[in-house]
Amino acid sequence: MSLSNNRAVLLAAAASMLLVAGLALALFWAPEDADQGFSQRIFYIHVPIALTAYACFGWGAWKALRLLWTRESRYDLESYTAVHMGLIFGILTLVTGSIWAKISWGVWWTWSERQLTLFLVLFLFYCAYFMLRFSVEPGPRRANLSAVYALFGVALIPVSFLAIRLAENFIHPVVFTRDGPQMSGSMFVVFCVCLAAMLALFASLYTNELTGKRLDARLRELREALE
Amino acid sequence: MTYFADVAALARKDILLELRSRDTLPAMLLFVVSALVVFHFSLPSEASATASTGLLWIALLFTALLGLGRAFTAEREQRVLDGLVLAPCDRSAIWLAKCLGVLVFLGVAEAVALPAYGLFFEPVGWELVAAILLANLGLAAVGTLLAAMAAASRARELLLPLLFLPLVIPVVVGGVGATVVDDPGRYLGFLALYDLIFAILSWASFEYVVVE
């Protein structure tokens, strides 16, 4: 117990330090963008959050696959927690992307922003995941249904991305191309620090949430045993 | 070979059941024609031809949803699914057979919807027919799996559209794209890719949906 407590504390400390460092670097150290000026700095928050959301969904799907593979019920809670975190990061992506769109293009929403549209689709998809989960009795069946749906999610991400790309014209600044990231060295460093910060934040939140949910489950078992 | 014999027997059961009870198919046919008529009145008279194509896809999507909502009714109400799961056949055969049944129903509904669309709106081109045939596969594959999921939940009919619509957005993109652009090859290829990915995924994961 103390070991996992230590890990949670360490993760939380790392996440908060990296977040402060990343924000400070993004606001004060990173060079000003020639085109967009100060407002471009939201890039250091928006893109790491989006990538972290993908990582959450991927992690959730990985745990879902493990559940179906091994039929160990603990993976159900792990997969659910990861998807839960993914949805939170996904909503944050929508919000920060919307703010960026307002500053850059003067509108709160634009369908020609591919990532934003993709996150809207994913948002709807994973909201349905929660509807599904809350409408099935807890047990192995719910674990299986959620796991299959979470696996469909990671298949949907690239397929939707392709679909949106096919559906679209492009006005979004493309930062990552096939030739690698199109930014200067110091920008890339700041970006990496911010990405590490967001991933650490996810790991920390995930560990805490999982511990809490496990405690809840244990408490419920004990209560039932007492009755 | 027994696998395909199982699939054929199960698909035959679904189609026979529908032929005798006529529960689903007449409703789908009536729905798709009514939807097209409603769409005529919801389009302003100066609307372009591409707008009506988009509406046709919406009509087809909701018709599929109507059929899928009833796909597992008999299985659930008469507890047929428990028997099927206990039967000594591969569980994915149940999915494949149900898919075939859904495909037949969808095909019949579209055989009525497309002439009606041609009559009320625009003439139907080969791209539209090809896109619909490809889209049917994806809709049936994903829809059957999600219908089985929804049937296992408390919310049932309420849940199916919520699970189904976000997943079939790529089908709409491919279908509408193939019908409105000059070079439909890329969009048809994309629909085929979607069918392949999600058919394999649904086929492989159906067992976990029906078994605890």
Secondary-structure blueprint of this entry?
The complex is a heterodimer of chains A (227) and B (212).
Chain A: H1 2-29, H2 43-70, H3 74-105, H4 114-134, H5 140-166, E1 176-177, E2 180-181, H6 185-226
Antiparallel strand pairs in A: 1-2
Helix pairs in contact in A: 1-6, 2-3, 2-5, 2-6, 3-4, 3-5, 3-6, 4-5
Chain B: H1 2-21, H2 25-42, H3 49-69, H4 73-77, H5 80-86, H6 91-120, H7 126-151, H8 159-180, H9 185-210
Helix pairs in contact in B: 1-6, 2-3, 2-6, 3-6, 3-7, 3-8, 6-7, 6-9, 7-8, 7-9, 8-9
Give a verbal description of the structure.
The complex is a heterodimer of chains A (227) and B (212). By secondary structure, chain A is mainly alpha-helical. Chain A has one domain (45-174, 183-214). In chain A, a hairpin with a 2-residue loop joins β1 and β2 (180-181). Chain A has helices spanning 2-29, 43-70, 74-105, 114-134, 140-166, 185-226; strands spanning 176-177, 180-181. A two-stranded antiparallel ribbon of chain A has the order 1-2. Chain A starts with a helix and ends with a helix. In chain A, 78% of the residues lie in helices and 2% in strands. Chain B has one domain. Chain B has helices at residues 2-21, 25-42, 49-69, 73-77, 80-86, 91-120, 126-151, 159-180, 185-210. The radius of gyration of chain B is 17 Å and the shape is globular. Classes of the chains: A mainly alpha (227), B mainly alpha (212).
Keywords:
heterodimer, A: 227 residues, mainly alpha, two-stranded antiparallel ribbon, 6 helices, 2 strands, 78% helix, 2% strand, globular, B: 212 residues, 83% helix
